[in-house]
Amino acid sequence: MHPVKRLTVMYRRNYKSNLSIDEKVLMGIVRLAETFKRVHSAVFRNYGLSFPQYNVLRVLEASKDGQNKIGNVSGIMLVPGANITGIAKRLVKDGFVIKKSDPNDERVTILEITAKGKKTLAKIEKEKDQRLAAMLNDMSRTEKNDFLEKVRRIQQSCNGKAGTS
Fold first, then answer.
1. Is residue 79 predicted with pLDDT exceeding 80?
2. Where would a tag sit more exposed on the chain, N or C end, judged by fewer CB atoms within 10 A?
């Protein structure tokens, strides 16, 4: 038996969840997200990147001309600006990104993905896609789309009702 599965079985013998079905659904999503992050972080580490660093590169790659304002990157990733600044510093130091001032407003910092950053993303893609496929191989495209729609509905519900009683 796989060591993680053995631990899970051992813990469940001494634990009975008292979570409601709603909590179980949301905790299942959290566990799934944590598993996704752990599995993919191992891939990114092989290329000298952390999970957040990889995500910054992906945002920049998808941005017009491979560049974007640091504030926009922060908003897309839902990460505080101070955290993005630290992540960007390491990416600049390692040659994945360049940092420059906005010519229209010197207070604004722009990040731009470098050729090294683009090449690294291209190298990562095959292994990342293989791991994604392994995680979702039991689901048809229709099931994936249905699941995605359900997750979107939950997210919309959370956005519309967060903090209300």
1. yes
2. C
